[in-house]
Amino acid sequence: MPTPVVNPDIGTGTETSQKERHVPLFHVVLLDDDDHTYDYVVEMLSSLFFLGGETAYRHAVEVDQTGRTIVITCELLQAEFARDQIHGYGADPRMPRSKGSMSAVIQPA
Question: Which fold, 34-108?
Fold first, then answer.
């Protein structure tokens, strides 16, 4: 029986490219301020990230107590989109002094 010839340039289809194996991830970090209520944070996170009320509330508490909370970890394009969605959410109608959206930053995971 002849030995099969293997062409090193042709993969078996099971290899994963270097890029696929090591895609860098980024945290979208919501930053605290005094111009938005807990209700606003819960509403925003539920609306933008489909978080349940309890999970969104925990993020509201964390951002209030520590000054920041990681709301999502994902690839860069998605992280930029998520950050931009937070920045575009608008002012908190419950607080007259609220003039705009909350702030968020992107950090390497």
Answer: Ribosomal Protein L30; Chain: A, (3.30.1390)
